[in-house]
Amino acid sequence: MSDACIIGIGIHPFGRTDGVSGLGQGVMAVRQALDDAGIDWNDVQIAYGASEAAGNPDTMVEQLGFTGVQFTNVRNGCAAGGSALSCAQMAIRAGEADIALATGFDKHPRGAFDPQPAEYNLPAWYGEAGYMVTTQFFAMKIMRYMHLHGISRRTLGLVAQKAFRNGQHAPHAWRRQPVPLDTILDAPMVSDPYSKYMFCSPAEGGVALVLASEKKARELGKPAIRLKAAVMRTRPPGSFEVFAPSADIERGGSATQIAARDAFTAAGIAPDDIAVAQLQDTEAGAELMHMAENGFVTDGEQEEYLAQGWTDIDGRLPVNTDGGCLACGEPIGASGLRQVYENVVQLRGHGGARQVPGNPATAYSHVYGAPGVSAVTILER
């Protein structure tokens, strides 16, 4: 079975772009990715698109061209983009197509996300009692984790400080100014222990990735980035997830742990083999918890990792080299694909001031979505 290869990438800058629809931002990213791959829209044989709030991705054909291409819409929370990529990879590996597209975009209104109980099969009273306010859940979850594993609030601040430091070097990032640690720690509190700098913001943006079979990539003469694994998993019994905010005494792990395990098995490598990682960081504590759930550290080791700078661009395991969600914001449909876009940039050696040294050959991305789904991607040059 052939590997799927990423041969083209495109991105519309994240943040706020007045006058351009979310779908328009996605179309711009697709055109960039096609140009990067050296192909036309007519060459795309199958496509998968993700969007939460900006319309059906398949309607992009009105601007890209009516070719009759099979185009499937994917909606899977914050893991929608990663899920679209997983579908595109399966189409290539199954021999259904030689060239596939995975794209995602969104344009969220200003303010916090406003999830509705019915969307998650929950009763109306769940929202009336305030349990749909995700900032409160994530704050509660990290407080428990910090207590159990000796994580300090200062370490949360170091995560955010690193994000803004990295984001200043990423042209597609929204927040491109460094923020001092004291400013982060002393900023207005949103949900204890998180200040306003420790949460990402809903945003706008679009990303597109063109995939090809190994044979087609060679025919096109493109330097291929191999997609060694693209795995999406749902939560097991007893997991502690947003919109399921209770912890069983007997826990069955998490969707992230399952997705990470299966991705490493599919790729035939281990966490120690990864040179750069993009991890879901909708809030500062998420990056810390996901470092452990993805197998890169044991619970509690994050305190030393951040203090020693081991997740910096020149560190032992660079994490979120473009600033992650904290610096880029989160347009839900595009966010997981942004991580993979950034990893392709790193493996091509095109990161500029944010480039990981040492000519990295492997890259990992992880995205988490409500009510407990995770997508993991492993790339290899």
Automatic annotation (TrEMBL):
Gene3D superfamilies referenced in this protein's UniProt entry, alphabetically: 3.40.47.10
Highest taxon above the source species: Bacteria
UniProt domain Thiolase C-terminal: residue ranges: 254-378
CDD domains on file: SCP-x_thiolase
Identification of the protein by name: Thiolase family protein
Organism in which the protein naturally occurs: Croceicoccus esteveae
Organism lineage string: Bacteria, Pseudomonadati, Pseudomonadota, Alphaproteobacteria, Sphingomonadales
